[in-house]
Amino acid sequence: MNDTAAPPAICGNTCASACAGATRALALPPGERRKKAGIGSLVALLVPAFGFPLGLGTLISTGEKYLWLMHPVLWPWEFWVVGIAGTAALMGGLGDWFYHRWITHCFVGRAERRCELLALAGGGVPMFALLSAASLSLAPQRFLVPVMVVLTYTTALICYDEFVYHRRRCRPLETLLHRILVFGNGTAFLAWAHWCFVNGGFAAHA
Hints:
This protein is an all-alpha fold. It has helices at residues 9-18, 20-27, 39-61, 77-103, 110-136, 144-166, 172-197; strands at residues 33-35, 107-109. Helix 4 (77-103) packs antiparallel against helix 7.
């Protein structure tokens, strides 16, 4: 469906009474309207979620050095936290995406859509790449400053999105899903960063 197409009746009936953001979006010219749940946001959400287990599988296939990854009992605690918290974040993100796209058919302005996409694709994906590189590096501390830069950038975008667009608009279910997504990803980040920068990543577990 075209993102700039006229919104279905449910958006007006459901959002207009409870969602000031949707009311403003519907007043915009058609070219300024965007679906709340865009395909780009979904792809950016899925990249780290599937990239982490695929990365571990790739390492296992490279040789005996990483065969210990086949035995979960040998995993460091950080991997378990990344797996559990990351899965929770994925479920929260998918729930939020499907809720907006298929239940409320929510429309927002271009600026809100751009902010959300920048946080996921411009923050989450580069962070995944940096932590992956740090995990494999013999000197993971070299990646610490870039990681902190991306972390600051992503945090600023998330806070802006939450306080400018979501704080007064979201229903309780939306707020819950956002919290699961944000705090799940935050917890997974902390665990992965601890693995890289405190425990030395794979170089220290060879």
